[in-house]
Specification:
The chain has helices at about 15-30, 100-120; strands at about 5, 45-50, 55, 65, 70-75, 85. It is α+β, with helices and mostly antiparallel strands.
Length: about 120
């Protein structure tokens, strides 16, 4: 486990992390993913050894953690500024993967430039 930030090796989990893993796997077992299944394939249980966070991750790097309601929720990060958190906390996210603030700064700016360009013709 040397120099690894993220590990799926359970021998690297401490008592607290194992308890978190149990809660996470129980929430996964009880989840209704018909509404919002963001996971793809090759799902694994992981530990960030720096932060101590236990999470589920798939081959597409989608991450799920337990929210305050004990449910699995997608953990996301803004593709522009790197702000991260639960999907419900960072809503709305645009198609480019930006948080609201970056969307207003970047996407809207581009959309306005396109409109100006069209009107200028």
């Amino acid at each position: 486990m040397k120099n690894q930030i993220v590990t799926a090796d359970l021998s690297g989990f401490g008592y607290r992390e194992i308890e978190e893993a149990i809660k996470l796997l129980t929430a996964y077992k009880n989840a209704n993913f018909e509404e919002d299944n963001f996971f793809l394939f090759n799902l694994s249980l992981n530990l960030n050894v720096n932060s101590g966070f236990v999470f589920l991750s798939d081959e597409g790097y989608n991450v799920g953690i337990i929210n305050d309601n004990g449910k699995i929720e997608q953990f996301i990060s803004c593709a522009y500024c790197g702000k991260e958190g639960l999907k419900s906390e960072l809503k709305p996210f645009c198609k480019a993967g930006y948080c609201r603030e970056c969307h207003l700064k970047e996407c809207v700016k581009d959309e306005v430039a396109e409109v100006v360009k069209e009107v200028s013709k």
